[in-house]
Amino acid sequence: MIVKKTRVGALTAVWVGLAGVVPISAQLPTLNDKENLGYFVVARSKSSQFGLASDGKTTIRVLDNKGETMSSKLTIDVDFNVTETMPDGKKIVRKIKAESLESAQEPTSKPKNVVIKGKVTGEVEFEVMVSEERGAILLGGRLLNPGALKNPTQFSVEVEVPNSLPEAKKDGDKRDAKELEDKIRGDKVQLMWTDGKRVRIPGSKAVEGGSKEVTGPGISAATIEFSAFKDQRIQLTASPNSSMTVSNPATRPLSEGFSLHWTADLAKDPEGKARLAIEIR
User: Fold this and answer.
1) The predicted structure's pLDDT at residue 18
2) How far apart are CA 31 and CA 36, in angstroms?
3) Are strands 2-4 and 91-93 parallel, antiparallel or unpaired?
4) Residue ranges for the chain with pLDDT beneath 70
5) S-S: 163 plus which of 46, 61, 112, 257, CB 3.0-4.6 Å?
6) How many helices (H) and strands (E) does the chain have?
7) pLDDT for the residue numbered 174
8) Beta-carbon contacts of residue 141 (< 8 Å; ≥ 6 apart)
9) Under 8 Å between Cβ of 28 and 55
């Protein structure tokens, strides 16, 4: 079980290594234009709008075919987590100190090898990497200093896919239920496991995210196709030496919301070059 203390959202991409930086500011600055005020990094494609705010809060908004943002209820949240594993196996996500975030780079709407450093409680130091490549957002990160924590710690990226089902009508009847069933009939999550096996999970099927049926030995790619996102598909790809797992609050349909957790294999990727690519198209 993960106890979360706080939260701070077929692809080919060019996997790039990032150089280290020397922090020069005590907090993340912000873009000055009205549209992007409050954001340190933004990136917009014809199908999505990525934003990393000055306090570290990160989101992805899906755009419709007119370039307009969809309902705020469909916002995808992205969290950069530092997880400590306790002796009893319980996992605790340590609080990220927003005031500790810093970067040697200027705010940008065209992120290329952006490096952000920060700390969590226990004085654990970490860094986050952000790039945009061919319409895809590339995210990565690693721990720099374990600080005062003695238990095993790990950096991860959590992508939270929101509940995509429409709100039920208060006076709903069998007709409403049939309309909903028809609307989400084609909803699905397609996964590729790290062993090459492909798995298709209907969005309406109740599943346990962390089960072998869903996550298997680990996930290398995931494609989410929910009717709520119109014709847009959400695609996530883990580069070599990294993988993803799925989690949800209970055994329930993935259309009701779930999370994908990305981590790198520390033994194979000590320099933190692995990336998670997120693309909406």
Assistant:
1) 35
2) 6
3) parallel
4) 1-26, 167-177, 179-180
5) 257
6) 1, 19
7) 60
8) 80, 126, 127, 128, 129, 155, 157, 272
9) yes
| Non-local CB neighbours of 247 within 8 Å, separated by 6+ positions | 2, 209, 210, 258, 259, 261
Look-up: residue for tokens 């990727």? 269
- The answer to whether 56 and 30 have CB atoms below 8 angstroms apart is no
How far apart are the C-alpha atoms of 219 and 38, rounded to whole Å?
34
**Which helix H or strand E contains 176, and what residues bound it?**
helix 174-183
258: its two tokens: 């779930």
> What confidence score (pLDDT) does residue 9 get?
37
In whole angstroms, what is the distance from residue 46 CA to residue 69 CA? 11
Whole-number pLDDT of residue 167: 64
DSSP per position, 181-203? HHHTTT-EEEEEETTS-EEEEET
Q: Which residues contact 89 (CB under 8 A, 6 or more apart)?
A: none
Question: What pLDDT score does 176 carry?
Answer: 65
Measured CA to CA, the distance from residue 234 to residue 135 in angstroms comes to 12
Q: Which pLDDT score is estimated for 165? A: 85
Name the nearest CA neighbour of 140 among 245, 270, 273: 273
The pLDDT score that the predictor gives to residue 103 is 97
- How many Å apart are CA 186 and CA 183, to the nearest integer? 8
CB 27 within 8 A of CB 99: yes
Short-list 258, 161, 166, 168, CA closest to 205: 258
